Amino acid sequence: MSTVPSRRPIVFSGAQPTGQLTLGNYLGALRHWVTLQQDHDCLFCIVDLHALTVRQDPNELRQNIYDLAALYFACGIDPARSTVFIQSHVPAHAELAWLLSTFTQIGELERMTQFKDKAQRHHHNINAGLFTYPVLMAADILLYDTDRVPVGEDQKQHLELTRDIAIRCNSTYGPLFRLPDPLIAVEAARVRDLQEPTKKMSKTAASDLAKVMILDEPDAILKKFRKSVTDSLATIRYHETEQPGVANLLDIWCAATGNSRATALDHFSHHQYGRLKNETADAVITLLAPVRERYHQLSRDPAALQALLADGATRAKERAAGIMNRVKSAIGLPV
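^ that's the sequence the OP posted. Answer follows.
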């Protein structure tokens, strides 16, 4: 008797093309995405429409989109196993966002923490897109019958809203949308700012010394770690409150080498901060070297890169069409 193969769980995730990604993005997200390909049906998107809530230089934005795509592939996203595409190449994202906006309450959007934070940072351009950003994110997710969404703490609220919108639609029209669940990697590293280790490492940090970028050259990485903030206690132990800088370096060394925290504490029992900084830098340099090399190879062949993205967009459009037809038919639009 033949058996029907089981459906692999669908994962959707994406990143904005707003400059290079950090070591934190790699250890906390991209490396996890690569692992997910083994037993999930993955869609990884360059969410360029989301980037438009902030004014962008057109040429710079276009280049950032392709640079991010090259970085996806360089980090190990396999176009043969995952669907990789540019959000604006699949018009159904914007179309579904409009439909979902009619099922989203203004009060829900006003409670979004990220809207409040971004409105403060970009107070000269508090546009409607910034306000309705979570609805487009909901469309991104619901458009592919997504089962699981890799999220960090700052994105949980948006996923909860996505589920609320889907439940509201389903209660009105029947089972239109699958309810996505958060996917939080247990092994994901928490990478902190090298100058303010109580904060998450961010590509928007004011100081270049605060962040290690995936494409940084070895000399730059070494310099940043050597200038990282520790303390004056002259002891290496893991205490996030009393020694956040040391704890951050230990976390990074463990993530880069694959060693446990207990192994790290034994290895650095010499309590020398200089050696801790240098060895952490060396581990990161070794980890990122093949990514940087592959990225530069891809960047030298833009036609091949664009062909991969065009293929991904074709596959994404085919998948989105079925959901869009289902939604339109249910709510009364001609199909």
